[in-house]
Amino acid sequence: MKKIFAFLLLSIFYLSTVSYSQGLSPGVAWRNLDKIDKEFFLIGFVHGINMGIQWSVWDVKDTSCKKMIDKSYSSYIDRTSPLLEQIQKGKDLNIIINKLDEFFSYYDNRNINVPLAVYLMLLECSGESSEVINEMVRDQKEAIKEIEKLEKSARDNQRLADKLNEALEEAKERMRVEKERKESGQRLKELESQYK
Questions:
Q1: What b/e string do you get for 128-149 counting C-beta neighbours within 10 Å, with b at 16 or more?
Q2: 13, 14, 61, 80: which one has the fewest Cβ atoms less than 10 Å from its Cβ?
């Protein structure tokens, strides 16, 4: 169990680190992985699903909450179970890898995060309709666009705040210089009046 957990963490950490550190979109990061890294990621991802369900109910006392979690989990597992079992055994990895490679070959899919893309490909391989999958992709793309707008707005607001801070510092400096000039002028007048 410890080996699986370590493997999962390393796989996810590796993909997210490569993506983040190189400023790559998730799809480009996926496409840059070699075959063995893709296999490691998928195996770790699938094992992580099982760990996730176990951890999500850890110390949960509310039975209605546990039922909701179990219902969500089982709806996912029921649809993808045969394929997940094969992937856990290290089989049928190429099916999902090829589907992910194809999915991320389309430029407009490259910002979709890899775990969601894996889920979509598992659903597709398990017989989910293309309408449902396409709707999920559209929803994700809309969410990404909204996030990008918010990020742009945040960057614009930060630039504006930086400009305002810069202008404030310049104004403070001008006020300091003006104050010193006035004080110097006042001292000069005092000295002149002493010598008159």
A1: eeeeebeebbeebeeeeeeeee
A2: 61
Question: In 83-169, which ranges are E strands?
Answer: none
Rounded to the nearest integer, the mean pLDDT of the chain is: 78
Q: Where are the alpha helices (DSSP H) in 60-129?
A: 63-88, 93-105, 114-125
Structure-block tokens of residue 176: 């300091």
Residue 84's contacts (CB-CB under 8 Å, 6 or more residues apart) are: 46, 49, 77, 122
Place of tokens 């010598």: 195
- pTM for the model: 0.58
Closest C-alpha to 114, from 45, 52, 51, 40: 45
Q: Which long-range contacts (CB under 8 A, 24 or more apart) does 51-54 make?
A: 51/4, 51/5, 51/8
Structure tokens at 20: 């983040």
pLDDT digit string, tens, across residues 96-143: 889 899 999 998 888 888 888 888 888 887 787 889 888 988 888 888
